[in-house]
Design brief:
Elements lengths: L3 H12 L16 H9 L3 H18 L3 E3 L20 E4 L9 E5 L6 H17 L3 E4 L5 H11 L4 E4 L21 E5 L9 H14 L2 E4 L7 H11 L3 E4 L10 H8 L3 E2 L3 H7 L8
Length: about 280
């Protein structure tokens, strides 16, 4: 049976411009030459299985746009990452990548007060500003951010931790055919989610937009990992204020201590994104 890494590298070799091949080593902790040796060692039956899988994946890839470094639509901000995506599968309106964006992140289990803030203040912000919402599509704040955007008639970019054909979480599948959602993934269509995919996804969330809004998070969380990536990428981190006794939003308190701009209202957010002139 072929290994996933062999299949992944083979696809990358087949789908990317030849000049990018030299940049694939090391890839995922595996030297490309070692993987090529593994491919050469496959017997006829294993090659048959591999080629059938290649055929299936290539057919699936025809449904998507494939973005790679030097592609005109490849996000410029990703070039600043230590490990830019080798490629991106995209489904939706690529023009959203060039529009003004804000990344909205937070806990999968938001408190009621923060859900109310999203339904009230973030809703008001989107009603008066044509801004694209970027999210990771996860349960909780991410899901609420995209749903709020769509409810307001705005658009959203959703970066998934799995291939687009096996969209994870499952509720993100409803967005694949929505004309106001652009779905992105750095994985092949049928690649299922793995633990390390979330960290990889977070680095893209932390660098796609110039502003990252933290709605609610704990100090030790994936959201704070995204915050660190955003700061390293030169993005401005914003945070909704919180109370000191809420463990679930201890990350918000830490960000406030660290000097993150506090966003209490829709007007605050408009000012932060320079969509509204400050009062003289």
């Amino acid at each position: 049976m072929h290994s996933l890494k062999s299949l992944s590298v083979l696809f990358k070799i087949m789908r990317l411009p030849a000049q990018l091949f030299i940049h694939l080593s090391p890839l995922g902790g595996v030297e490309v030459r070692d993987v090529l040796c593994e491919l050469k060692s496959l017997d006829r039956k294993a090659w048959g299985e591999l080629l059938r899988e290649v055929h299936r994946q290539l057919q699936e890839l025809q449904m998507f746009d494939i973005l790679y470094p030097s592609h005109s639509e490849y996000p410029q901000s990703f070039y600043q990452l230590k490990q830019p995506p080798v490629f991106l599968c995209a489904l939706g309106d690529l023009r959203l990548l060039a529009q003004q964006k804000i990344t909205v992140i937070g806990t999968r289990r938001p408190s009621l007060s923060f859900i109310d803030w999203m339904n009230d203040q973030y809703f008001k912000f989107l009603r008066i500003n044509d801004v694209v919402t970027v999210s990771g599509g996860a349960f909780g704040i991410d899901h609420l951010a995209t749903q709020t955007a769509l409810f307001c008639g705005r658009s959203s970019v959703v970066i998934l931790p799995s291939g687009l054909s096996v969209s994870y979480p499952s509720h993100t599948r409803q967005w694949l055919k929505n004309p106001r959602v652009l779905s992105l993934s750095e994985y092949f269509p049928y690649e299922t989610v793995r633990n390390y995919h979330f960290v990889n996804r977070n680095r893209l969330l932390g660098s796609l937009s110039p502003h990252v809004l933290v709605v609610q998070c704990a100090t030790k969380s994936g959201t704070m990992t995204t915050v660190r990536i955003a700061l390293d990428s030169g993005c401005e981190v914003l945070t909704v204020p919180s109370f000191p006794n809420l463990i679930e939003s201890s990350g918000n308190i830490q960000l406030m201590k660290d000097g993150a701009q506090i966003i209490a209202t829709a007007e605050d957010l408009s000012l932060a994104l320079r969509l509204l002139a400050p009062n003289p």
